[in-house]
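Quick log. Single chain, no ligands specified.
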Amino acid sequence: MSQVVVLGAGISGHTAAAHLKRMLGKKHNVVVISPSEYYQWIPSNIWVGIGKMKEDQVRFKLRKVYKRWGIEYHQAKAVSIHPDGSMENEKPFVKSVYTEPEKRGEEITIEYDYLVNATGPKLNFNGTEGLTQGRNTQSVCTTSHAVEAWENLQKIFEKAKNCEKQQILIGTGHSTATCQGAAFEYALNVAFEARERKIEDKIEITWITNEYELGDFGMNGAFVKRNGYVIPIKEFAESVLVEYGIGWIKRAGVYKVEPGKVYYEQLNGSKHVKEFDFAMLIPSFTGAGIRAIGKNGEDIQDKLFLPNGFMRVDADYSPKEFEEY
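-> predicted structure:
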């Protein structure tokens, strides 16, 4: 019997574990290690952040599901990968620390024959000075963040309802931040909600992005078909923002945030300050922070991970036979 360990239970990890168990059945063991007791459908955090869905509508607890599927589950955070084993243990293994209340802080070692690293990104708020969830800015990257964003956005709507002019800033909070599409969707939803409440004349929304052109979305743009015409997504994005009354700042890298102020530098080197009453800015991402340790205890981080903490992969993600890796 072989053992497959899956690190992470997000969209990729949960999907991988489900399919692996379906294909391997009882002949082999599938183990999931994840620091959260929940699976959350991250794309729907947008709806939580705008008050259209509740937190428990976009997440469920993992333990009962995995028990029913016959998957071994540990609510723990992986801290190190030992692909060559150690002097005491010939098999490869992962060291983790439990995060569930009953075992919090306890260390566990789990051997594997195959390892799937699906930890996803770590939110790098520290990458931008002053970019702090819930204090200076908001995010919708997790369900709890989205709940907090909605709580604070309602206060903005209430002030606008009382005829107080409000400035809302939505976009990317670092020159290397990604997930522009999620922030773009959130901006449109905020504008829609303001219009539904008939307070759009009291709310000024600005889209700030590190994209070279609007609609790049980290993939150098695309084409869309609208009203029978095929147009570049740049034109589509601009037209949608105009339709919703949203202004924009592009080619902008946010480098500092203070209460009510964002400092950013544009590609041409010019520096600016933008004031806001509410800001939802996506932080940059890094790897999960897992260490890679060799058989003799040596650091082999550079062999498995890039400087930003993400695991090294083939650039084209092309599948290969196991022996070729």
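The longest strand covers residues 72-82.
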